[in-house]
Structures
1.
Amino acid sequence: MQHCDALIVPRWCVPVVPAGVVLEGHAVAVSEGRIDAILPLEQAQARYQPSALIERPDHVLMPGLVNAHTHAAMTLFRGLADDMHLEAWLRQHIWPAERRWVSAELVRDGTELAIAEMLRGGTTCFGDQYFFPEIVAQAATDLSMRAVVATPVADFKSSWAGSAAEYLQKGTDLVHDPYAEHPLITTAFAPHSTFAMADESFAALRVLADQLDLRVQIHLHESAAEIRESLRDTGKRPFARLDHAGLVNRSLLAVHAVHLDDEEVDRLAAAGVSMAHCPKSNLKLANGVAPVAKYRSAGINVALGTDGAASNNMLDMFSEMQTAALLGKTAADDATAVSAQDALDMATMGGARALRLDRSIGSIEQGKLADLVCVDFDHFNTRPVYDVVSQLVYATASTQVSDAWVGGRHQLENGRLTQIDGHELVARADEWRDRIAASDKHVQEVQ
Ligand SMILES: [Zn+2]
């Protein structure tokens, strides 16, 4: 008999790779943080002596979901300002709140709240971009969560850095120490948007990104206004400025990309750029509908992201998968566009590719890291089961996630977070609410 750390025995297993496969009567063996084997139950029982036997008789085992774009700490601004236009939302509420409140302390508390919410809802890896990335990385490490932590870059001053050069220097420091070869954390650069960056700042960013072989992610063509203003101010569309800077290549993750012309779609596809689709954020801020089916058929890798909790307002990848499928059909005027399987692919392998982690995560395959999730189908809304993938995308609530593993560590067990004190997180969030609400009221009064 062979030892393994855990033998997980679900009713169904959706490995995502190979595409479209749903296994029944199978078990997944986990050893030293990795998937040792996926095999029929009788063979597993004959081969393995597990330290932990985890039987989940009404459950689906699937890869952990990958939230390719968020601003985790913004959970503390959730519900602060809703139902308003992008401009008013940003200028009268979010930016003043950020100027007043963003600190290492807020980023730590907000990121921890986000990690708890994501794990509880089946997300085991997130791509973040926010101020104080070293605190984001530390919070993720402390809570054993996988994260791609992108250093923000902008020409504007924040409580974290005063110039593009300073953002880049601090980002470079983060890459070298201590996250060069970290089991959970990888790093990237995240210029906020083309309107926050001069051409010289893009040039400096490109040199560093090339030298360090880092991914670059940027909010791009999120709204029609962003394109209009760029044309007015620079004579170029934001995408053209980015292309001119030499940043349109395999390392680029274009966030949103709601409004692209045909030429830009072809250019993105040819350059191997990935795209982070954030359908609920786009809907809530009325920024338009990204034609995802068109992007995918052009060959662009599309990932899914929640964006920050101030513009969504949940970090819920099940809800995001469902919205992506429904919206993708509407955008294409075709009910066969963006199937349940497509939505699941985007939320798993699509995200893993976009974050350059597809050799390690995104599917249940032998040798990959054991980033796994169980979903309990023993609920009214997920019975009867004709099609497991359809059920996951169209009928499942994220509260049905019962278990989550990150690198083999059992982070959520039967609906209970094993490593995080939820009561303490909620108490801290409530304290922040009292302070921020008082200040936001003041902001409204003085305007
Ligand atoms: Zn964003």
2.
Amino acid sequence: MIVMYNPPSSGRRKPVMPLSLLALGALLENRHDYTIVDGNLDRDALGTIDRLVQDGADILAVTVMPGPQLADAVPLCRELKSRHPSLKVVWGGYFPTQHWDVCLKSRYVDYVVRGHGEVTFLALLDRLATGEDVTDLAGLAYRMPDGMPFTNATAPIPHPDHMPEFPYHRIPMERYARASFMGKRTLAHHSSYGCPFFCNFCAVVNMVGGRWLAQSAERTANVTRRLVTEFGADALEFYDNNFFVHEARTIDFAERIMDLDIGWWGDARIDTLLRYADRSWELMRDAGLRMVFMGAESGSDETLKRMNKGGSASTEKTLFIAEKMRSYGIVPEFSFVMGNPPDPEADVENTLAFIRKVKRVNPHTEIIMYVYTPVPLAGELYEEAKAEGFAFPQTLEEWISTDWQDFAQRRSAQIPWLADPLRRRLRDFERVLSAYYPTITNPNLRGARRVVLRAASAWRYHLGIYQYPFELRPLQRLLAYQRPETCGF
Ligand code: B12
Ligand code: SF4
């Protein structure tokens, strides 16, 4: 029997549909006996898995993102492996794809499946079941007889249209529907793999190498309909890295779900969306598109180039799309990657000034600010980071130290070129900005509450005095301010 484990993905254990495990499970149905354990729902996952192993489970497959999931997966796998040395532990997901060698050096991870892993994982299980050699499997990393980690080349991305449907019956769907600004019962889907771009700060590039493959509009709409009719969803989050790559697919999808009356949200590139026809915008709006997450990244065209943002990205386009979306009543959500080397101060100041411009054009724009955290990807930014003394940890234990956990969540002390005062300036600016422009996606922040927050922060915002906004802290807490939840793409 195989246990598939989704470690808790946040301190608060917010239940997020474990799509990675559903994608893997879809191929195992009727072929391998498996069960899914979700650490977001099960507070004693170690105990649960231990019992399953005692009952005969011999493979533990774990999905691991950097951050809280890694922090949970390390001690759990270490403990289980010490209790059950013959248990085979397989890791997959964003963290092991990038840092496979560190994982395999740990000795409590036996195999790493890199990239989109459903086909490789199935082949691995088939071969382990028959005792066949696994070392030639594309996408697999393993330890050689001398103990050194070795990786095969990654496998081609499986086409999501050729994969079976997610086995929703394997998880308690009822527990994943949650309230969001789009609806009372928000569920999630992932309709495409990858992204055709090569931004040099983005982990997706390591995962897919510039490829993008999508489910047809028909299939995506059918899944949406199923989530609505069978599981009562009234809103949907699309976790695709880049949902909107093909205008024709998006529009076909929008037309097919028009009657469902749901809210939905997805991820896009600004330059792609700017090419969409007005009629497409009308259709998306009428089909319930409520917000789009986009990487605006920087307030400097020069930095966008150094990030290898590609396409025809520019700050001018960021302002255009903010204005355009305002006219359709769809909220733009921009993420910025700040504090880039070699001149992080100038980079931050430039981008803060630009964010003020964006807010003038469309005050409803949501702003997400991250500090640049390198990914192991050839490119100018990573090379500069290394030149400044940056190096990734060499053990999993080091990865789960507080400092590196902060790094993984993009609020790091481990970034040698970003001094504390600069980090504080970003935090202070964010506090003043979010008080002066309270998010419209939080239903608790309507009417008088908005007015109070704006009035209290107006002088700071107008004078550009962001330092030590102590007075705003209790006010924001009191008025139930919440930053919109996202993990940044
Ligand atoms: C949903 C999501 C979340 C959810 C949690 C999901 C969960 N599992 O509980 C929430 C919102 C809580 C979240 C939080 C964070 N996230 Co997040 N998240 C995503 C998102 C949007 C979708 C993941 C998903 O479901 N994909 C759908 C499935 C089908 O694809 P998949 O996960 O890649 O799985 C495939 C392969 O990876 C592989 N695979 C995965 N697991 C396994 C396991 C085995 C055994 C095998 C064989 C294969 C395998 O095969 C799968 C099928 O093809 C991705 C971006 C994306 N589009 O993938 C970011 C992403 C993974 N998150 C990211 C980050 C940075 C975070 C945070 C650290 C952000 C922060 N500032 O705090 C946090 C903390 C993460 C943690 N929990 O440890 C980054 C990772 C970047 C990196 N450097 O590696 C991503 C890539 C976003 C981005 N582009 O930057 N996240
Ligand atoms: S940042 Fe966005 S556009 Fe660039 S590679 Fe990553 S997912 Fe694609």
3.
Amino acid sequence: MAVVKASKSGATSVAVSCRGIGKSFITKDIEVTALRNVDLDIKTGEFMMLVGPSGCGKTTLISIIAGILKPSTGTCIVEGVDLNALTDTELLDFRAKKIGFIFQSFNLIPTLSLLENIAIPLIINGALQDEAMARAEVMLAKMGLASKADRSPTQLSGGEQQRVAIARALVHQPSLLICDEPTSALDHATGESILTLMKDISAEMKTTFVIVTHDARIFKYADRIAHMNDGAVTGIE
Ligand SMILES: Nc1ncnc2c1ncn2[C@@H]1O[C@H](COP(=O)(O)OP(=O)(O)OP(=O)(O)O)[C@@H](O)[C@H]1O
Ligand SMILES: [Mg+2]
């Protein structure tokens, strides 16, 4: 695996470093440029938010950072690893260990119970069934859903499904948690409590958070906010 050495000084380490990231999609002979020449650095333990209008490339960018999509141009180094240099198998393994991802559409598995859904990342990483289920139960309780552990995700409200997706993304304690609109289906109080929980986890475990959001109510939790427009990062505050 291609590991890029951390800085010699041991100064604040960088969790994500994107350089010259471009991404085009070709559908029916039409080329759509979703990202153009994006440079972005995110520090370890940072709470970074990504905002911008619909279609500006936010989901595309975080999918590249998560190793779900390959960029058309540029390099993305995550936790010291150049994602371009990994084989498909290495990339799968890297993602399973290091990255949690909360999708804009929650991607819960309807044929599994809530508890089983949350346990998946642990099972993938080789945990024993009993231990995985016990840890999933703790996460579900943190989300206030302990009493619904045996239900299918199809029997939940949108906000409840979102909380299960958050629990699943956090259960294997990833170094980098990437969230696409994590509070879009939550009421104000639940959204605030989820952000508080994420902040606590970030402080406690030095988890780096990258959060795409339209929700101005949660901007106050950000260490920095990167603004995107038309496939580019236009400013950072
Ligand atoms: N698989 C794909 N094939 C073709 N075009 C795509 C694909 N995925 C995204 N795009 C296009 O790339 C651009 C950026 O899409 P992206 O999903 O990254 O936007 P976004 O900022 O996340 O928007 P939203 O806030 O609505 O979720 C859009 O023009 C979109 O139509
Ligand atoms: Mg999106």
4.
Amino acid sequence: MEASRSGVRISIVPPPWQRVLVTGAGGFVGSHLCEALTGLGVEVIGLEGFVPSYPRRYKEHNLERLLADRRFTLVQADLRTDDLAPHLDGVDVVINEAAFPGLPRSWSDVPSYVDCNLTGLSRLVDASRAAGVRRFVQASSSAVYGATACGDEQAPTRPISPYGVTELAAENLLLAHVHVHGFPAVILRYFSIYGPRQRPDMAYHTMIEQLRHDLPLHVFGDGRQSRSNTYIDDGVRGTLDAIDGGSIGEVYNLGGGVEMELLEAVELLAAALGVRPQVRHEPARIGDQRRTHADISKATEAFGFRPVVDPESGLRQQVNWHTTELAALAEPRLPVPA
Ligand SMILES: NC(=O)c1ccc[n+]([C@@H]2O[C@H](COP(=O)([O-])OP(=O)(O)OC[C@H]3O[C@@H](n4cnc5c(N)ncnc54)[C@H](O)[C@@H]3O)[C@@H](O)[C@H]2O)c1
């Protein structure tokens, strides 16, 4: 079977699991993941709490295609407070993509990060254990490593933002459940994901909007900070392959293959939009990472993870989405069940 948004052919053998709960289903990664799963014929329960991390209309837009798919059911619930048991009935696999994300702004709203990323996770794990799920995949982050995220999973974890701290604590909470209860958790550390539907607080999203509207482009710091960004299709494929290919209690880096400086990305984005960038340097933001470059050999060995989308074509896909779908997203327009 094949699933693709980028023109890249993704061949995945039909999965042995039939009912999957994806949390954060209205988010950037969660919505793509749900689409890939329904494309494989899997029944998907998409749980979404519409927490105010960014405007709800983006998340409603992300859900549009899914709401027209009979294999998808949207559950509007908050991991922090709602009864989760009814939504786990008959579920084989849980993929937790729900979190309050973003490094720099976590300094100004620590409670939201602690509540969503830890209390919410703890409640989801308890309900998943009670339901006897077969696998639990946790979306974690390269932010657990700290200012530089280079190397393999043994690199020191010294987060430099409350977001990174909650992500690391979430990993440790899961590992405690693995150790004490044999909970079947697999942890994935995503390295900055990009592509269509990227969150509006993320660098490429804001840069494309500034370029598209002929505004000065605000680059924090010297612009030499680098990322091994991961195209969304690669991230989704790695996540699906980790369900069965990842070992319980193990942590895997999922990153893109190419490390690129921010100013290089600016050039590619400007070229894709056919504009000349007016770069304005702003002070570096606290909690921002300087360099990320994932060593993905553990994921490659365990479940054949190999990112295939290069930055030029991946960024072009994201630019296309901004100039078509996002440009049309002026007002909320989708009725979502209350
Ligand atoms: N996008 C990236 O580059 C990236 C990088 C590293 C890690 N991650 C992690 O991957 C996951 C997905 O990231 P994303 O970029 O899609 O984020 P996102 O904000 O677009 O999606 C997360 C979704 O979870 C929902 N949510 C949050 N708290 C909830 C709660 N208490 N109850 C129910 N729903 C809740 C939000 O409303 C949102 O729609 C997150 O865990 C994030 O930390 C993402």
